[in-house]
Amino acid sequence: MPKRRPAPIDEPSPPEAHCPLCGRVLGTANIDRHHLIPKTFKGKEQFPIHKICHRKIHSAFTERELLQTYHTWESLRGHEDIRSFIDWVAKKPPDFYTRTYTSNKKRYR
Ligand SMILES: [Zn+2]
Ligand SMILES: [Zn+2]
Question: Is the pTM of this model over 0.90?
Answer without folding.
Answer: no
